[in-house]
Specification:
This protein has 261 residues and is of the alpha+beta class. It is built from 6 helices and 11 strands. The strands form 2 sheets. Strands 1, 2, 4, 5, 6 and 10 form a 6-stranded antiparallel sheet that branches. A 5-stranded antiparallel sheet has the order 9-8-7-3-11, with no helix packed on it. Helix 3 packs antiparallel against helix 4.
């Protein structure tokens, strides 16, 4: 008698269970029902059943994958982009920004581009896309800055991620602007206030009334190493007008905050 049969006989004798009968009467579908009743979705019995019932071609591919495991077949690292925290806004992000030369956020970073505790980790990347309308009088200068933090005052006090050079615009009314920025965390420290975040972006503005004239305003480039990853943070882009005038106006209409991995 084989060792396995001896063990079965011993279990039958010691516990009063007829293992041979259970084997004869066992139905894998019953095992699946027991798994599902226990709250186990796609458990071992269900997986075995699916493999057993898979088309011959699928089973052949799986067998080949098992045989070729020793030649170094590896899956590429997968990155999954997602809209982690906020969907497309239902209204303008704020009223028009005008009659000021004070740096002003285009959106509240704690609401529209939050980085909750635990979201900042080494290698993590985020993308911001935003846009709206703007208008000018004369030839005002304009620049944009990126920050990491939740402060939404004017000027904001979040950690500076880099301000771009000033650009001179022409005179126009109610022209669109659009921007994009990519930021990532290089590393986090052992203690708080040791995260390194950097990135860059740009804003395309109307350069003048003519539709063919545009100005590209860049921002970012700073590499702060003291961001606290143990508290809630947020990403923001702010605008700085060079001239205070009611006609120098910028209205941020939307922003999307996307996790890249």
């Amino acid at each position: 008698m084989k060792p396995a049969e001896l063990l079965k006989d011993q279990v039958c004798h010691d516990h009063g269970i007829d293992l041979y009968k259970l084997e004869r009467e066992w139905n894998i579908r019953r095992g699946i029902e027991i798994e599902e009743a226990a709250g186990i979705d796609f458990g071992p019995f269900h997986r075995e059943f699916m493999l057993r019932e898979a088309p011959e071609k699928v089973q052949r591919i799986l067998d080949e994958m098992k045989r070729d495991a020793d030649i170094g077949l590896l899956n590429a690292e997968q990155g999954f982009a997602s809209m982690d925290y906020r969907d497309f806004p239902s209204a303008n992000l704020r009223t028009a920004i005008n009659t000021t030369t004070t740096e002003t956020n285009l959106w509240n970073p704690a609401i529209h581009a939050p980085l909750p505790v635990g979201a900042i980790r080494g290698g993590k990347a985020w993308q911001l896309n935003f846009g709206g309308v703007h208008g000018t009088t004369g030839t005002p200068a304009i620049s944009f800055r990126a920050r990491c933090g939740t402060d939404n005052s004017a000027p904001p006090t979040g950690t500076d991620l880099g301000v771009g050079p000033t650009m001179t615009l022409g005179t126009f009314t109610a022209q669109p602007f659009v921007g994009v920025g990519t930021f990532g965390c290089r590393s986090i420290g052992v203690a708080a206030s040791g995260a390194t975040i950097t990135g860059n972006g740009f804003v395309i503005c109307a350069g003048a009334a003519a539709a063919t004239t545009v100005a590209t305003c860049v921002f970012g480039g700073a590499i702060p190493t003291t961001i606290d990853d143990t508290v809630a943070q947020g990403l923001s882009v702010s605008v700085i007008w060079g001239t205070s005038n009611a006609s120098n106006t910028l209205t941020p209409q939307w922003v999307t905050h996307q996790s890249m991995n």
